[in-house]
Design brief:
Belongs to the Nth/MutY family. InterPro entries: A/G_AdeGlyc_MutY (IPR005760), DNA_glycosylase (IPR011257), Endouclease-III_FeS-bd_BS (IPR004035), HhH-GPD_domain (IPR003265), HhH_base_excis_C (IPR023170), MIG/MutY (IPR044298), MutY_C (IPR029119), NUDIX_hydrolase-like_dom_sf (IPR015797). It catalyses: Hydrolyzes free adenine bases from 7,8-dihydro-8-oxoguanine:adenine mismatched double-stranded DNA, leaving an apurinic site. By secondary structure, this protein is of the alpha+beta class. Helix content is 45%, strand content 12%. It is elongated and about 85 Å long. The N terminus is likely disordered.
């Protein structure tokens, strides 16, 4: 006969074993579900299936219908023509050649917000309405028009491409393969021009398109990797509507820009929500959001660079005090950057890279050596009126954080003597610019920041030099 106490112990141990088995089973189920969800969230690009015919037709129809109802109005989407005719031998010209308009707008829109581009585009087309007009422009004029947009290499490629097309007869290439032969036109720009202007059924792939397709197919792979990018191009090519390729490509980009946004997508308003695999996964497996697609790419840490920048002002008036007050008639020294590399071919104040943070004495030593070696600064032919340490200025590039240490030198030129004597082959690399002409130059935002510091310093100095008025005390009766 088993005692009650031993019976209680046996049942207790059995309950504990059952609980352990149940806990293990539950744990396996959780792991299984987690693995399943992880697999669904992290499918490799090799596992991505093509769009089926049914989904393709539905996406085309829904997206184009949505685009027809909701497309934004931009000047480059207008098919406007303006004809000029005079008694002279002026030829009639098309004001807004479709391919040229698409080309200019797409290049401007790269890395730049739409709201910023609109005014730049309108001014550009007013000055150079056709590719033939642009081909006659100088790089200086183009840089001046582009000033403030950044990524100045784009402007150079536009000008070089226009000259190339005009030199070959002036007929705009109409296919992707032909467009790719023009300098500065890559896969995306070629696809945009060919599809929008010439109805070639080819895809375009930019950040907006990648985001939309990544969510349609629940692709969480790194969108920057070459193998992943190839998949996006293939899938985008499957979706392009053969009857309206240009409108479809614009609709796909428009969807990514307005509804399928990076952080706050409006899924309830999306015309292709029914075909969105990412949205389906959110409903069944409960990941945080469709914003998990595509994968977030870790941004590279910006490189920190240091420059010594010297603004050199030349006074020519015999009366130095008078000339210092007349900024517009004074001359400033500008240097043209090399044709390759950062800010290629653009004008700036004399600048020298530093190895790191440097004190004022070190910076001046480096700058003096630069001015003497490159310009053969002749101190016997001028008088140093003043030399001031103005301060620091930070300018941000995509991959560089540039810290500039700015100083201001005022030189008085004696008679007709030349202060600077550059080598003959370097003459085109520098020039004097009147103070009242600087604002009209095509200067970068960084250079304008430096010049603004100089203007503020001079204004402050001018106020400090003004004689103070003394108040007369009234005599008390």
């Amino acid at each position: 006969m088993v005692s009650s106490s031993s019976s209680t112990l046996s049942w207790s141990s059995m309950d504990q074993k059952k609980k352990k088995r149940a806990k293990k089973k539950k744990s396996r189920e959780v792991v299984s579900r987690t693995r399943s969800t992880t697999i669904m969230l992290c499918r490799g690009v090799g596992d991505i299936e093509d769009f089926c015919k049914e989904d393709t037709l539905e996406i085309r129809s829904s997206l184009l219908h949505w685009y027809d109802q909701n497309q934004r109005v931009f000047p480059w989407r207008k098919r406007t023509t303006k004809i000029e005719s005079c008694d002279d031998d002026k030829e009639e010209y098309e004001f807004c050649d479709r391919a040229y308009a698409v080309w200019v707008s797409e290049v401007m829109l790269q890395q730049t917000r739409v709201a910023t581009v609109i005014n730049y585009y309108s001014r550009w087309m007013e000055k150079w309405p056709t590719i033939h007009h642009l081909a006659q422009a100088s790089q200086e004029e183009v840089n001046q028009m582009w000033a403030g947009l950044g990524y100045y290499r784009r402007a150079r490629f536009l000008l070089e491409g226009a000259k190339m097309i005009v030199e070959k007869g002036g007929e705009f290439p109409q296919t992707v393969s032909a467009l790719r032969k023009i300098k500065g036109i890559g896969d995306y720009t070629a696809g945009a021009i060919a599809s929008i202007a010439f109805d070639e059924a080819v895809p375009v792939v930019d950040g907006n398109v990648i985001r939309v397709i990544a969510r349609l197919k629940a692709i969480s792979a790194n969108p920057k990797e070459s193998t992943t990018i190839k998949i996006f191009w293939k899938l985008a090519g499957q979706l392009v509507d053969p009857c309206r390729p240009g409108d479809f490509n614009q609709a796909l980009m428009e969807l990514g820009a307005t509804i399928c946004s990076p952080t706050s997508p409006g899924c309830s308003l999306c015309p292709v929500a029914g075909q969105c695999r990412a949205l389906q996964l959110c409903s069944s497996h409960k990941p945080e959001s469709v914003t998990d697609y595509p994968a977030k790419v870790v941004k590279l840490k910006q490189r920190l660079d240091f420059w010594a920048v010297c603004v050199v002002e030349i006074l020519e008036h015999n009366n130095v005090a008078i000339q210092k007050e007349s900024n517009g008639k004074n001359k400033f020294l500008f240097i043209k950057r090399p044709d390759e590399g950062l800010l290629a071919g653009l004008w700036e104040f004399p600048s020298v890279p530093l190895k790191g943070e440097a004190n004022l004495a070190t910076r001046r030593q480096v700058m003096d050596k630069y001015l003497k070696n490159f310009f053969k600064l002749n101190t016997d032919e001028c008088t140093i009126v003043s030399r001031e340490d103005i301060g620091e200025c930070v300018h941000i590039f995509t991959h560089i954080r540039l810290k500039m240490f700015v100083e201001f030198i005022v030189l008085h030129q004696k008679d007709e003597a030349k202060v600077f004597h550059a080598k003959k082959e370097d003459i085109s690399a520098w020039k004097y610019v009147d103070g009242d002409s600087i604002d009209s130059m095509g200067l970068t935002s960084g250079v304008r920041k430096v010049y603004k510091m100089i203007q503020q310093f001079k204004q402050k100095q001018s106020l400090e030099n003004q004689p103070r008025r003394t108040r007369k005390r009234s005599k008390r009766s």
